[in-house]
Design brief:
Number of helices: 7
Largest sheet: 7 strands, antiparallel
CATH class of the largest domain: Alpha Beta
Number of strands: 16
CATH topology of the largest domain: D-amino Acid Aminotransferase, Chain A, domain 1
Bound molecules: adenosine-5'-triphosphate, magnesium ion
Structural class: alpha+beta
Helix content: 25-40%
Strand content: 15-25%
CATH superfamily of the largest domain: ATP-grasp fold, B domain
Order of helices and strands: EEEEEHEHEEEHEEEEHHEEEHH
């Protein structure tokens, strides 16, 4: 893959709706164009340094998983084929090819639907103190990277600025009603189960992941991204042990670097040295190869 890094896009006359932490979103009237850039965010802060081809990996994986899970839930993808994009986008084909998708314009539900199959990250800190994760009682005897008895749904709010806040299932019921709460939970767990069974056959554990859903034509659809190294923790199954940090193919490597620096996790974020950038780019490509089982072109 060519070593190019795109941090922001500017499609001149095409209306920019917003820049997310990673994606640039353009409003095409009845549809949206989502461009995955090479920006990386850690602890909810966008870093000044990009990861070459990261956006291409995110786009490719999401397209794959959207198709793989469409029997469980409809998703926002219309097409990722730039030749089928509306004519106004054709002058930008070169930038857009491989890192963008035309999607249905949905009304996002402001909840991060997190599913955890394993303990990791902040879940361990809570478990250590209370033997709970997101308030769910788990009993004694779990280790820092243990598989949970069954996958659990641990939603959080989606904050425009700053950190997302963990919320209870009851919070979703009181804000969106019990039918939507039940569907968000059921769909999330089903998506996790189907994708993690598949990934395991490829030697990859999906430790946890998060989804975003939106309303489209009065129905719930999966939006944003699906099972990417930004939204999920991917671990190597080969040498997995429940009490030792597994080899990972996600942002953990960058988080570890930033933790070691002692950065206070508020903007501005420090830039990343070349060896961290290269290693991270390598990890993103590796996970794409594992899941898609073929070398990227
Ligand atoms: N089909 C869609 N319709 C409407 N909005 C969408 C759709 N798909 C994604 N979005 C929105 O586009 C934005 C994508 O932004 P991006 O993924 O870069 O990061 P973020 O949401 O700021 O942060 P993060 O994903 O890291 O929590 C999000 O606000 C998401 O809700
Ligand atoms: Mg997002």
């Amino acid at each position: 893959m060519k070593d190019n890094t795109i941090l922001t896009t500017d499609l001149t006359d095409v209306k920019l709706l917003k820049r997310g932490k990673v994606r640039d979103i353009y409003d095409l009237g009845d549809a949206l164009l989502i461009v995955s850039t090479d920006r990386i965010s850690c602890f909810d802060v966008v870093l000044p340094t990009g990861i070459p081809n990261k956006g291409v990996v995110l786009n490719r994986l999401s397209v794959f998983w959207f198709d793989f899970t469409k029997d469980i839930i409809d998703n926002h993808l219309i097409t990722d084929d730039v030749n089928k994009f509306p004519g106004q986008l054709h002058p930008f084909k070169k930038i857009l090819n491989g890192r963008s998708m035309l999607v249905k314009k949905a009304e996002p539900i402001p909840i991060e639907c997190v599913v955890r199959g394993y303990i990791a990250g902040s879940a361990w800190d809570e478990y250590k103190n209370n033997q709970t994760v997101a308030g769910i009682k788990l009993g004694k005897g779990l280790y820092k990277y243990s598989r949970l008895p069954e996958p659990i749904f641990t939603p959080s709010t989606k904050e425009d600025k700053g950190h997302d806040i963990n919320v209870s299932y009851e919070y979703i019921i009181s804000n969106f009603g019990s039918e939507i709460a039940r569907r968000l939970k059921d769909i999330s767990i089903k998506l996790y189960n189907k994708a993690s069974d598949f990934a395991e056959k490829k030697g990859i554990i999906i430790a946890d992941t998060k989804f975003e859903f939106g309303f489209f034509n009065n129905d719930i659809v999966l939006i944003d991204e699906a099972f990417t190294p930004d939204s999920s923790r991917f671990w190597s199954k080969k040498d997995y042990l429940q009490d030792r940090a597994p080899e990972n193919f996600d942002k953990q490597f960058v988080r570890d670097y930033l933790e070691a620096l002692g950065w206070n996790k508020t903007p501005p974020a420090p830039s990343l040295p070349g060896y961290i950038v290269n290693k991270t780019a390598e990890k993103y490509i590796q996970i794409l190869k594992y899941i898609l089982d073929k070398a990227p072109v």
